[in-house]
Write the structure tokens for this entry.
Amino acid sequence: MTAAAAQPIAAIAQRHLLLNMTANGSLGGEGEDLLVVRRGEGPYVDDTDGTRYIDGLSGLYCCQLGYSYGPEFAEAAERQLRELSYSPLWTGSAHPTAIELAERLSRIAPVDIEHTFFSSGGAEAVETAWKIARRYHALRGEPGRVKAIARRGAYHGLTVGTLSFTDDPGLTEPYGPPAIDTRFVSNTSRFGLAPEFADDEVWTAWLLAELEATILAEGPETVAMLIAEPVQNRGGCITPPRGYWQGLRALADRYGFLLVADEVITGFGRLGEWFGGDRYDARPDMVTVAKGITSGYAPLGATLVGTKVTDVLNRPGVVLNHGYTFAGHPLSAAIALRNLEILERDHVLDNVRALQGDLAQRMAALKDLPIVGDVRGTGFFYSCELVGDLDDGGFSDLARAGLIADLIPRRLREAGLLARVYNRSAPLVQIAPPLISDRSVLDRIAAIIAGVLAEASARI
Ligand SMILES: Cc1ncc(COP(=O)(O)O)c(C=O)c1O
């Protein structure tokens, strides 16, 4: 037995692993606060002690199929690796699996999107969209379109480029000025706003007027693209009002910038459609995806590029000087193809469509709890925004530390649910369960959250 094997695995992690977005130095003496997940089955995962949890967050919003399809994916992976383990999509070279996947994606993508540029994950897909937007404008004689527009509170990745599309100083500091000159406009949350904004028409008009004013103030000839999620994850499953995406399309057409739908979370069934934008009749110029494209069985990202853009990009002699070694890796592409096949064969999107009404009702009922200020979401994607002990609905430092940072996450875990508890700006409890979850799993998730938030309400 090696020295490492004699130690608890969490302690080894603490000595050797730098976790993402984690206070690595505060994990407790021997890593006892660390959840080490060893195996998965259906919508459940088990930790190294054998404790079972409902994976209410699909890993990190990616395990659409849950954890029981391993043998099928292993068969697809083995077949691919026996035939071809690697081949680049670089300088005029390609391989059949990526080609087949690109063709398959064009069939489910919004109507005017035919081409795909592959990458390894979401942030790379978003940076690709930015670089393609810049190339597109430069090739059309508008190199001065150097600015992006993003929405407040949004998250599009943590690379130096994609960080520019995030206005949260907690994420951007201490990394210096943003790489991309970005302006921020309101997201579509209306929680806490005047009652008149409950009307979709009023809210949409306000949001679009703000956006148009921003574009005009900056100079339309300087704006390259706007990036937005169909339902914004950060800030808590923020759905758009009716007419919003049509308004974005109209402004993009009027002022000549490209509209990018970031579907890294909302794609591949999360909202009951192949793309979340389909729910809102969004017609973007590019769509960024990752996560659910493989249901988390392999890493892959992709930027789906509309014909308006590829008509310019694919002009004879134009070199697309951008790329990644592992773009569309044969293994990941084979897994993605099998994932799309399974999602269709096993009617997984139909499962979301069939159960989303019940889940909506169960989640809406949480609004009766004093600590719940708002419930937002759609499909298999919901958040409760919490309100606290201060007059303005905020939380005192004491309540934040006691409830949001401690009691709520601890009780959810003790009750056997992995859900996300945000303890920044607006405190939230969020779920994005695997899309294969049945009614009993969804009911259990809602019941656990109700129980924990009832206890938290009593302590305010
Ligand atoms: C909307 C959105 N875009 C981009 C990303 C970045 O994806 P990745 O972590 O694969 O780089 C994320 C990650 O959560 C995301 O939620």
